[in-house]
Every structure is written in structure tokens, then in C-alpha cells.
Amino acid sequence: MRDDELLTVADVTARLKLGRSTVYDLIRSRRLPSITVSRCRRIPARALSDYITHEMEAAA
Fold this sequence. Notes:
Distance between the termini: 25 Å
Protein name: Helix-turn-helix domain-containing protein
InterPro entries: HTH_17, SinI_DNA-bd
Low-confidence stretches: none
Pfam family, one: HTH_17
Oligomer: single chain
Largest sheet: 3 strands, antiparallel
Domain Helix-turn-helix: 6-53
Strand order of the largest sheet: 1-3-2
Organism: Streptomyces sanyensis
Mean pLDDT: 94
Number of helices: 3
């Protein structure tokens, strides 16, 4: 996964093994940063990586 890659919500749900609504909840709560590109929600790969790192540190 490249840091400059933009992921779809479906990509993120597959990588995190979470439901679509859970990913949108993470976006809404600003725990997972995203951008809108032509009415489509996109999550920067770096933001997903940072989210995972943060959650792992919090769980430790």
C-alpha cells in the first residue's frame, strides 16, 4: 500500500474486516480522516495506517 494511495470505503472495510457503517462512523467521528472527491468518500492510505498504529498503541 502506497502512502499517497486513496482508498474507497469498501477497501477500508475489507482491510479492517469491519462493516461499512462502522467505517462511516469512524469517518464521522473524525477518528479516520477522509476527503470527498467528486461526491465519493476516499481515505488516504496514510490515514488508515496512522489509525491502525494509534489503535494498536492504545490497546498496548
